[in-house]
Amino acid sequence: MNRFMLKWLLPLLLCCWVLIPVASAQDAQATAAQLERLKRDIAQLQQRVADREKQRQDEQQALAQAERSINRVMTDLRALDQELQQLDVNMQGLQAQRTELETALAERRELVEQLIQEQYRQGRQPRLMLLLKQEDPERLDRMLRYYDHLNLELTQQLQTYQQQLQQLGQTHQDIGSTEQQIAERRERLTAEQQQLEKARADRQAALARLNQVQQEEQQRLTSLRRDQQELEALLAEIQRSLEASRLAQDSQEFATLKGRLPWPVQGNLLRTFGSQRSGVSFEGLLIAGRTGADVRAVHHGRVVFSDWLRGYGLVMILDHGGGYMSLYGHNQTLLREPGDWVSAGQAIATVGNSGGHEETGLYFAIRHQGKPVNPSEWLSRP
Question: What start and end residues bound the annotated signal peptide (predicted)?
Fold first, then answer.
């Protein structure tokens, strides 16, 4: 029994009570007792309706919490994936450096061995003996310089060899540290993925409970109309708050782009502007899309709303100046925050089915001065 029926039931019962003839005190007492029973029944029905409404609100809050968790985890996963890619690049650089050092060490080792062998051969003749044998002063001078150069070269090569050994050891440590970082990041990534699966499971459970308590057509219609009124109120509030500080005129006014705006996501139309849904006129487009696909801004603007909204799930609203706004609903992830500036074609969200919807796709709408306009007339031909 809905609120409308309860609204009229009590006055009707009271009228019936007034029209009951009081034939006797016994009849009056019986009628009064019957009326009390009816009043109790009505009170119980009203309480059940109130409890059911509270349960529906609780389930909507659970759904909002689950979808906000999915949004946060998906953002963390994107950041972790970028970290892993950078660590892989660093790892490749360290491995290449290690290969170069090992090659240089092998060459340096061979050169040192040759110098040691040469010094050993020359060292078999004492320096004084060589001096006594040489009768040519110029040859003697060359021999002495050669010995000095050989000793100096050997010393330098040994020092360089030792430095390269230390550098190779440091490179091995860096590789080990990088491998440990990658392992830790992958462990975090796995934990985040498990958390995402749990959040999704919680969302599905909340969605199932929500669908269970929203079976009656009248309640569903009332909920849709209330959702629509709240959205209109939100847009009106945003419109008022921006009146004092409108966006600077863009190089190309939004109003001049009618029929030439890019599509926010590529896909077939699942629902069109003006179509009926449970007696409520649909004020946007529902565009089919792949889960997780990028949702892109149709024009330069500023983010004025980025949060969960009942009936529309995770919603992004952009203000384009001149009283024009674009709305993107049912998202899986929101990539921008209120106050952010975005350019045409920039990714602002990802496609999903948030808000308790079974179909995956983007809800896209355009408002001018707070009033809905047909987005199909503004988008370019697909």
Answer: 1-25
